[in-house]
Amino acid sequence: MSEATRDAARRFLRDRWAVVGLAFLIALSLAALAAPWISAHVLHQSAFQLHMMDRVTLDGRSVDVVSPDGIPLGPNAHYPLGADLVGRDVLSRMLVGARLSLTVAALGTALAMAVGLLVGLLAGFYRGWADTVLSRFVDAMMSIPILLLAIALASVMRGGGVGVVILVLGLVNWTYLARIVRAEVLSLREREFVEAARALGASDASILIRHLVPNLVGSLVVFATLSLAGNILLESALSFLGVGIQPPLPSWGNMIQEGLTFYSVAWWIVLFPGLAILLTVVSLNLVGDGLRDALCPGSRGGSGT
Amino acid sequence: MIASALAAVALVCPLAGCAPRRTAIAYPAGSEGGPPKRGGHAIFVREEDPDYLDPALSYGTYSAAVDEALFHTLLDYDGVPGPAGAALHADLAVSLPEVREGGTLYAFRVRPDAKFGAPLHRHIVAADFKYAMERLFKVSSPSVAFYRRIVGAERALAGRDSVLPGVIARGDSLYFRLTQPDPTFIQVLSMPFTAPIAREMAEKYPGSMSQHTVATGPFQVAEFVPRRRLLLVRNPDYCGTPAWLDTFELRLGVTTTNGVALIRRGQIDGGFFDLPAADFARLRRDPYWSRQIDVADGLSTDYLFMNVRKPPFNDVRVRQAISWAIDRRAVLKVWAGKGVTAGEFVPLGMPGARALHAYEGPDLPRARRLLAAAGYPHGFETTLYGWTTHPGPLELTVIQQQLAEVGIRARLDLGESVGYTSMAQDTSRHIAFGIYQWTADYPDPSNFFDTLLNGRRIAALFNNDLSLFDDSHVNDAIERAMATADDSLRARRWTDVDRAVMREAPIVTLTHPYEARLYAPRLGGWYRHITRILKLEDLYVKSAPPPPALAAARASGERSVTPRPATARGTAR
Amino acid sequence: MTQLIVRRMLWAVLVLLLVAAITFLIFFAVPGHPAELIAGKYASPETIARIEQRLGLDQPLPLQFLRFVTHAARGDWGYSYVSQQPVLGTLLVAFPKTLSLTFGAAVVWLLIGVPIGIASALKPGSWLDRGSMVLALIGISAPAYWIGLVFLKVFADMLGWFPLGDYAEATQSGVLAWAHHLVLPWITLALLYAGWYARMTRAQMLDVASRDFVRTARAKGLSTPAIVSRHILRNAMLPLVTMLGMDLAALLGGAVLTETVFGIPGIGGLAWRAIRQRDLPMVMGTVMFAATWIVLANLLVDLLYGSLDPRIRHES
Predict the structure, then answer these.
(1) Neighbouring subunits of A (3+ Cβ pairs under 8 A)
(2) What ipTM score was computed for the predicted complex, to two decimals?
(3) Which of C202, C257, C290 sits opposite A144 (nearest CB)?
């Protein structure tokens, strides 16, 4: 096992793009963890403090952070990536947003994995009625466009804050994993080692946990990485539409949404959070591809998630 | 008209330092080029279809401009900008009504030359008005509450009767009998809901009156293709002052953003939308286009309500503390400066309104002292409810921070506008602290005080007194002011009510948001009427210098995209 | 075979019923008074009660659901609470817009994605391959709404080449205006899918190229172009066509973000607005409309594969 892991790690590290992606993600996570410290000590700003009526000195002149008709300062010495419509520092908000977006997407993915794994295992292992009922339910869930389903759920469960977003991500994204797991279990359960375990009198639960799940780990890791990328996009889309993370908490998606009305005069509020989403998701996909090549050497890039 | 910020709202002139009282900018470009000429074609755009082309059912802010051009009724507002537009004149009636029997009987005579437009071309008689009034209750018109004081209306409202004995029609004579005097009755009577309806058409096309309109105003419908266009032509059967334009075209399904671009390219003349904040900020700095923006007081107030029956808001000192804690100038900034700060409940464009400058602050030490005196020296925790419609979230974020400065820790709970409004109006949901916006339905302070703060109107559902404020002195004062016929005395009484409300602070007034609209230079006669968005019959086409080449206009627009030099910002204050 | 078809179709109907039930349940949880949307802000409780009765909102939930299903089966999808227009009519008016967006974008993504995928697969590991795969990755990683906003800012607002969103009816404004308005949305939507198709094409081609019959062909001395066009491409295209069918079906249910950003009055925008406004009949209509396409595409793929590959038929 450890030999195989070392092999996989070696294969992964040989993929230069995947390593670049991983490095970016690590840097981003560190920056997100240190967000309060960076904001306070490096930027001398806060992600939450509004500066509606404040003035700052630029080139020896005193200027409003937010003009009387509501236009904030663009990138400058005090605000490296500009101020937003209520005079908050865009960079500080992006750092706190990174923390939220990553956490929410990660927990959402974990929930989706748990549900998907459970449903897939049950359907694949017991077949028969359990399989029929669960599979039809999965079919129905997958027949509703994922964004519509997420919007609908988020919009009726509003008021619960970040927890609701995690729940929504978890509830809409498990179906695909359930299908993969079911298919794998269907083939695994016929293999000799399962027969052997059963012959030795192992219970269903122990077969599932000791024998089936370990064989799924590779698929699960790859799925988790790619699904994390998908969940970051989905969370940002929900927040962009106003049903995801609610202000004053910043998320990359709701920052874009807040800047929308002033997009033509204050482009920086929209541009930078979008770039952050793009880079993060690209990195996750690079790492995901790298992991797939490393853990499942037989398969090739390109299947959809 | 719509209680929420959903409806794009009115504006006036945030242009630096403009006094709130100068509500309308008179014909910025319309005054050049001599008197209006008859003829011509104007093109407007709008994203949504008009809700209905039926005077009984239409209630959308921007549908009103079209409905008011199609369906005229007994009286009409004078076609002038500013508070002077609140004066009424006879339209399909011979003269203003005779008010008898202590203000409970209104007697009208229908003009002998009043006629329905195509395809009927027949004389309008008093019975057509009576039919229209009774139809309001039959089709559950959104307007019925306005007409509650007509004898028999309560029975009709409860669905127990389909006739209104209080509306009496004899030939060309028309009488309205009320259960009690109501000086605002003449104003609610001037809304297009009361426009005459031909029974023969309404009964032939009960479900599709929007497709079979019969005009009683200066325009009639030549073509209506939903989601595409609405073409109006001058109605030759209209007996009042005819429209200047031959035709008026409303292209539907065009977004606001593109509408602005089309106006600037000279391809259309205007749009039924509030100029978006960014375009407003950009264009008002452009020497050419700044003259084409109409900024006007739309009679709107944006405010916070607090449930005065629930701690901690049951203590007047807490409510006053919140009023002192808010910096209204900061709130105004999220409205792109379109509007004025509100130190009074009644918008300043309202006839007889007075600026009270209450709680001009912020005064944080005073707010803290008041909180301490009320027993909350360290503030308290609460939830502030609001809507997601722009600029709601930003505005509430600003308020949240300002409350935090005096120790009030407010959690924000934001919802969709429609859902939020009905939730706030449902007393069983116990929403204690939230934001609201009210835009006048007719130009009288009673539409603010009686509708929103008269404790005797509190209802379980669809309650508009969101603070559950029920002060018998204030209630009496409201009812006394409403019953006052003399205009200046009435205005003084309303100001007294406003002062009392500010003192009791069941609400925290924030801003009076204004509306801004953009028109093409070739169009004349545009102005924000105090109750009508735009009087289509007053529009005319003039010869005007063509807009500057698009590239030039864009360049000047772009300049404001980059951070502006400090001097420009400094002088803008 | 007939039995298979009938069984699959019954399953499809069952799945649609389940979709309807899920949607219904989600929105049953919503507090508030849908009738108020119709009644307006001065409505009296009596008016509300009358409207609720007329719409059947006062009945128990299973009855309401039954009513919806039986009416929908007869083609009566009800009326929007907000606009009072028939749901089906509104859907049919919005559909051509979504159709225009979907098919135009599909042409663009096929034109971009498939050639890139082929070029990459011909020289795996080359500079060209790596470069285009990174580009494809960026395509699938970018938030569509943000790409749309950037395009609008650069190509519409700054350069003025295209309109700032909006939709032009071909029958009304002409085909040129129609296409002019759709260029940016097409490209925005296509970028995402072009990434997927480039990766998919490359993967399929490499997969096929490693199979025995290709080695045989090569051993027989066939030229590389002949092998690629005659053997590899043909075999690699089948999964791509399947994927195209599924993607088109999913998009016919509306591209919420692209439609929202560009102001295209299609199905996606309709659904989003209906959800926000709690316009239940319209929510049911749009969700069922979107789901129907997906279920149909699944059914088609199932049947095609079932008839092509006897093993699949056996297994289920």
Answers:
(1) B, C
(2) 0.86
(3) C290
Instruction: Determine whether the interchain pair A300/C22 forms a contact, defined as Cβ–Cβ distance below 8 Å.
Output: no
Nearest to B282 among A74, A76, A265 (CB): A265
How many angstroms separate the Cα of A75 from the Cα of each of B561, C197, C222? 12, 38, 61
Residue from the list C30, C263, C276 with its beta carbon closest to the beta carbon of B255? C263
| Distance linking the first and last C-alpha atoms of chain B | 32
Whole-number Cα distances in Å, C264 to A237, B349, C268? 18, 37, 9
Residue C253: both structure tokens together: 């249910």
CA-based nearest residue in chain A for residue C195: A302
Q: Do B276 and A261 touch (CB under 8 A)?
A: yes
> Between chains, do B337 and A69 touch, taking CB under 8 Å as contact?
yes
Residues of chain B neighbouring C51 (CB-CB closer than 8 A): 140
The minimal CB distance from B400 to the residues A70, A85, A248 is found for: A248
In chain A, the residue whose alpha carbon lies closest to the alpha carbon of B335 is: A70
> Which residue did the predictor score with more confidence, B64 or B488?
B488
pLDDT, average across residues C18-33:
77
Q: Which residue has the tokens 């509606």?
A: A52
Q: What is the pLDDT along chain A (305 residues), one digit of tens a residue?
A: 567 778 888 888 888 888 999 999 999 999 999 888 888 888 888 888 888 888 888 888 889 988 888 889 889 888 889 999 888 999 999 999 999 999 999 999 999 999 999 999 989 888 888 888 898 889 888 888 888 889 888 887 765 678 889 999 998 889 988 988 888 888 887 777 877 887 888 788 888 888 788 888 888 888 888 889 999 999 999 999 888 888 778 999 989 988 887 887 888 999 999 999 999 999 998 898 888 888 765 544 433 32
Kindly report the nearest CA distance between residue B230 and chain A, in angstroms: 29
For residues B185 and B105, is the Cβ–Cβ distance under 8 A? no
**Which residue is listed with tokens 């040989």?**
A14
Tally: H helices and E strands in chain B: 17, 20
- From the list A148, A278, A284, the residue facing C256 with the nearest CB is A148
Burial of B287 (0-12, 13-18, 19+ CB in 10 A): exposed
Chains that touch B (3 or more CB pairs under 8 A): A, C
State residue B368's pLDDT score: 96
Nearest to C90 by CA among C254, C294, C296: C254
The partner residues of B105 in beta bridges, in order of sequence, read B100, B177
On chain C, the residues whose CB falls within 8 A of the CB of B254 are 166
> Which chain A residue has the Cα nearest residue B404?
A49
Q: Whole-model pTM?
A: 0.79
Residue with tokens 């900018």: B25
A247–B14 CB contact, under 8 Å: no
Round to whole Å and give the CA distance between B106 and C135: 76
Locate C274 and state its tokens.
Answer: 């209906």
> Rounded to whole angstroms, how far apart are CA atoms C41 and B123?
34
- How many angstroms separate the CA of residue C33 from the nearest CA in chain B? 7
The answer to whether B13 and B514 are in contact (CB under 8 A) is: yes
| Amino acid symbol at B243 | A
Which of the 8 DSSP states describes residue A207?
I
Instruction: Provide the CA A263 distance to its chain's centre, in angstroms.
Output: 26
pLDDT reading at B365 higher than 80: yes
Strand-pairing partners, residue B339, are: B513
If phi > 0 it is left, if psi is from -120 to 50 it is alpha, else beta; for residue B375 that is left
Neighbours of chain C (3+ CB pairs under 8 A): A, B
Instruction: In chain A, count H helices and then E strands.
Output: 13, 2
Of A166, A118, A165, A119, which is closest to residue A140 (Cα–Cα)? A119
Radius of gyration of chain B (CA): 24
DSSP readout, B318-368? Answer: HHHHHHHH--HHHHHHHTTT-EEE-SSSS-TTSTT-----TT-S--HHHHH
